[in-house]
Specification:
Elements (H helix, E strand, L loop, with lengths): L1 E6 L2 E4 L4 E9 L4 E9 L6 E6 L5 E3 L7 E6 L4 E6 L8 E9 L5 E3 L3 E6 L1
Parallel strand pairs: 2-11
Antiparallel strand pairs: 1-3, 3-8, 4-5, 4-9, 5-6, 7-8, 9-10, 9-11
């Protein structure tokens, strides 16, 4: 199993910034790539950003140029730097870990981000 623990969510005004962190533990070696998803009230969960297997990154169009995903392999931790936040970024943000097993993906419990206008 893989355990993922997010932190860093909170309330911020529009235009502000937050940095989310995700610490991974457990069967770290089974992880293929990691990423971030979010789920806004009344909406389906969507991919925000992720690492691709070749080490490159992928972002949802809605966050390109504003969010940056990064990682510290020594700490088994990934980050999501969110700048120029908008009210529509309000959501629960989930850390995700895609494994070597097809179809097996782990998610954390999420951290709430609220952006006020």
């Amino acid at each position: 199993q893989v355990q993922l623990m997010e932190s860093g969510g909170g309330l911020v005004q529009a235009g502000g910034s937050l940095r989310l962190s995700c610490a991974a533990s457990g069967n770290i070696l089974s992880i293929n790539t990691m990423g971030w998803h979010r789920q806004a009230p009344g909406k389906q969960r969507e991919l925000v950003a992720r690492f691709v297997s070749d080490g490159s990154t992928h972002y949802a169009d809605s966050v390109k140029g504003r969010f940056t995903i990064s990682r510290d392999n020594a700490k088994n931790t990934e980050y999501l730097q969110m700048n120029s936040l908008k009210p529509e970024d309000t959501a629960v943000y989930y850390c995700s870990a895609d494994t070597m097993t097809p179809g097996l993906e782990w998610f954390g419990k999420g951290t709430l981000v609220i952006v006020s206008s």
